[in-house]
């Protein structure tokens, strides 16, 4: 009789191997390879089970649409990202870097929901009840219908839900809660899968919205199995720089709304506050025209935001000039410098150090900011300032052409609303013509000012 062989399988992608390894050879995840059992085990047939009348399938036209309506949380920017609010029975995962403000944001959501008369249960597996109350006192989140609990056991959390019967459940965080039904310690893929599956099943059965906080790894991805992002209904990412107070919330997955909305927040001493109109956050306050600056209208989700790009060009004797950037892509800046040298006549850029940065700590990742970067570098190189009423939007190709960008009308409307009467875009044709137009406008305006004086 042949001895049954044992195999090992990755719980993430299903990759199999004959011996245990610490890292999956297919998806490169650590700690996901577990023993699968006998390879020659016979498959058992699944028999159909009896279906209760309450769960019997019925026509889609008979399903109640009111049960899936969005309910506002009271935090407008968070509702914008979710598509109008939280849907009953939805499981929402909020991830972000340590210290970015995830717990502060969810405590504000809990306070707004409690202020509207709903019962909210905030379960913290990382802080004690006294620590959460201390933060709530600072942010003004004290309400009688906001219940706090500090638990790390999943069964105890379920018992707290039965005792409080909340209208909203917040668990901070899913990686620190463990279940006795699963092996391993809290945070391992098997534990995260068990905890998330139980809480999501609870949300669907009771029509109870559940907000989960998720940790991230060193590369920025959500810690735990990839299955966690498939199980939940909404995945939101909380972004921000520790050196700036601005925070962004983006929806990476949303079964009940769009995924191209962005919510803006600002961290203050009293907690977190909404920024419904962040137009002036990314512009300098200087009233004196300075060379090396140009304004572009970037698109963050569906929101058009004016962002000022600053450039500094300094001569150097080093064999390899420096290219230092902050808030923009370094490879794209290098490409724009090459296009300016080859297509726009700025051949001396190769003997200068170039520094490019954005105002306010915002990061520009879209190609629509190419033209503003090129104008800012050309302005710094020629030491000629651009008029304050000019904004530049466009993508630059290697051939030196200015290509159109998405949502051009929305960008132009936002530029006009903020007082930018001249918008340089793809209508100029080439990057050389765009740079000359931006710099010649300042020269002609200065000549008109001198003629008026003398």
TrEMBL record:
<dbReference type="GO" id="GO:0003684">
    <property type="term" value="F:damaged DNA binding"/>
</dbReference>
<dbReference type="Pfam" id="PF18073">
    <property type="entry name" value="Zn_ribbon_LapB"/>
</dbReference>
<dbReference type="InterPro" id="IPR020588">
    <property type="entry name" value="RecA_ATP-bd"/>
</dbReference>
<dbReference type="Pfam" id="PF13541">
    <property type="entry name" value="ChlI"/>
</dbReference>
<keyword id="KW-0067">ATP-binding</keyword>
<comment type="function">
    <text>DNA-dependent ATPase involved in processing of recombination intermediates, plays a role in repairing DNA breaks. Stimulates the branch migration of RecA-mediated strand transfer reactions, allowing the 3' invading strand to extend heteroduplex DNA faster. Binds ssDNA in the presence of ADP but not other nucleotides, has ATPase activity that is stimulated by ssDNA and various branched DNA structures, but inhibited by SSB. Does not have RecA's homology-searching function.</text>
</comment>
<dbReference type="Pfam" id="PF13481">
    <property type="entry name" value="AAA_25"/>
</dbReference>
<keyword id="KW-0547">Nucleotide-binding</keyword>
<feature type="short sequence motif" description="RadA KNRFG motif">
    <location>
        <begin position="253"/>
        <end position="257"/>
    </location>
</feature>
<keyword id="KW-0234">DNA repair</keyword>
<dbReference type="InterPro" id="IPR014721">
    <property type="entry name" value="Ribsml_uS5_D2-typ_fold_subgr"/>
</dbReference>
<keyword id="KW-0863">Zinc-finger</keyword>
<keyword id="KW-0862">Zinc</keyword>
<dbReference type="InterPro" id="IPR020568">
    <property type="entry name" value="Ribosomal_Su5_D2-typ_SF"/>
</dbReference>
<feature type="domain" description="RecA family profile 1">
    <location>
        <begin position="67"/>
        <end position="216"/>
    </location>
</feature>
<dbReference type="InterPro" id="IPR027417">
    <property type="entry name" value="P-loop_NTPase"/>
</dbReference>
<keyword id="KW-0479">Metal-binding</keyword>
<comment type="function">
    <text>Plays a role in repairing double-strand DNA breaks, probably involving stabilizing or processing branched DNA or blocked replication forks.</text>
</comment>
<feature type="region of interest" description="Lon-protease-like">
    <location>
        <begin position="353"/>
        <end position="454"/>
    </location>
</feature>
<dbReference type="GO" id="GO:0000725">
    <property type="term" value="P:recombinational repair"/>
</dbReference>
<dbReference type="InterPro" id="IPR004504">
    <property type="entry name" value="DNA_repair_RadA"/>
</dbReference>
<dbReference type="GO" id="GO:0008270">
    <property type="term" value="F:zinc ion binding"/>
</dbReference>
<keyword id="KW-0238">DNA-binding</keyword>
<dbReference type="GO" id="GO:0016787">
    <property type="term" value="F:hydrolase activity"/>
</dbReference>
<keyword id="KW-0227">DNA damage</keyword>
<keyword id="KW-0346">Stress response</keyword>
<feature type="binding site">
    <location>
        <begin position="96"/>
        <end position="103"/>
    </location>
    <ligand>
        <name>ATP</name>
    </ligand>
</feature>
<comment type="similarity">
    <text>Belongs to the RecA family. RadA subfamily.</text>
</comment>
<dbReference type="GO" id="GO:0005829">
    <property type="term" value="C:cytosol"/>
</dbReference>
<protein>
    <recommendedName>
        <fullName>DNA repair protein RadA</fullName>
    </recommendedName>
</protein>
<keyword id="KW-0378">Hydrolase</keyword>
<dbReference type="GO" id="GO:0005524">
    <property type="term" value="F:ATP binding"/>
</dbReference>
<dbReference type="InterPro" id="IPR003593">
    <property type="entry name" value="AAA+_ATPase"/>
</dbReference>
<dbReference type="GO" id="GO:0140664">
    <property type="term" value="F:ATP-dependent DNA damage sensor activity"/>
</dbReference>
<dbReference type="InterPro" id="IPR041166">
    <property type="entry name" value="Rubredoxin_2"/>
</dbReference>
């Amino acid at each position: 009789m042949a001895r049954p062989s044992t195999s090992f399988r990755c719980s993430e992608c299903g990759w199999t191997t004959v011996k245990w390894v610490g890292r999956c050879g297919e998806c490169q995840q650590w700690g996901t390879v577990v023993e699968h059992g006998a390879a020659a085990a016979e498959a058992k047939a699944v028999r159909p089970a009896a279906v209760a009348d309450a769960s019997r399938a019925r026509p889609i036209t008979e399903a109640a649409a009111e049960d899936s309506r969005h309910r506002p949380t009271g935090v407008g920017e968070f509702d914008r990202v979710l598509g109008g609010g939280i849907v009953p029975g939805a499981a929402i995962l909020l991830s972000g870097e340590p210290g970015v403000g995830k717990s502060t944001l969810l405590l504000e959501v809990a306070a707004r929901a409690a202020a509207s008369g709903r019962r909210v249960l905030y379960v913290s597996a990382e802080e004690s009840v006294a620590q959460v109350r201390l933060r709530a006192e600072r942010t003004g989140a004290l309400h009688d219908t906001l219940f706090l609990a500090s638990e790390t056991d999943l069964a105890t959390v379920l018992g707290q839900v039965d005792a409080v019967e909340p209208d909203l459940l917040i668990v901070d965080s899913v990686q620190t809660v463990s279940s006795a039904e699963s092996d391993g310690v809290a945070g391992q893929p098997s534990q995260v899968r068990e905890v998330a599956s139980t809480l999501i099943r609870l949300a669907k059965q009771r029509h109870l919205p559940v907000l989960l906080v998720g940790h991230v790894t060193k590369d920025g991805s959500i810690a735990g199995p990839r299955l966690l992002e498939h199980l939940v209904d909404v995945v939101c990412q909380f972004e921000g720089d520790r050196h700036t107070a601005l925070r962004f919330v983006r929806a990476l997955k949303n079964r009940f709304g769009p995924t191209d909305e962005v919510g803006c927040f600002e961290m203050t001493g009293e907690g977190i506050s909404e920024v419904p109109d962040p137009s002036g956050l990314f512009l300098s306050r200087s009233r004196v025209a300075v060379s090396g600056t140009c304004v572009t209208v970037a698109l963050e989700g569906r929101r058009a935001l004016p962002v000022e790009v600053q450039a500094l060009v300094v001569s150097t004797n080093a064999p390899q000039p420096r290219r230092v950037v902050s808030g923009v892509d370094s490879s794209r800046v290098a490409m724009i410098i090459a296009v300016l040298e080859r297509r726009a006549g700025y051949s001396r850029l190769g003997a200068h150090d170039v520094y490019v940065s954005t105002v306010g700590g915002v990061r520009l990742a879209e190609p629509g900011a190419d033209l503003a970067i090129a104008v800012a570098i050309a302005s710094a190189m020629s030491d000629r300032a651009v008029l304050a009423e000019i904004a530049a939007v466009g993508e630059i190709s290697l051939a030196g052409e200015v290509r159109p960008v998405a949502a051009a009308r929305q960008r132009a409307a936002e530029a006009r609303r903020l007082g930018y009467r001249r918008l340089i875009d793809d209508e100029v044709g080439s990057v050389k013509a765009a740079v000359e137009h931006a710099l010649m406008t300042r020269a002609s305006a200065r000549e008109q000012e001198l003629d008026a004086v003398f």
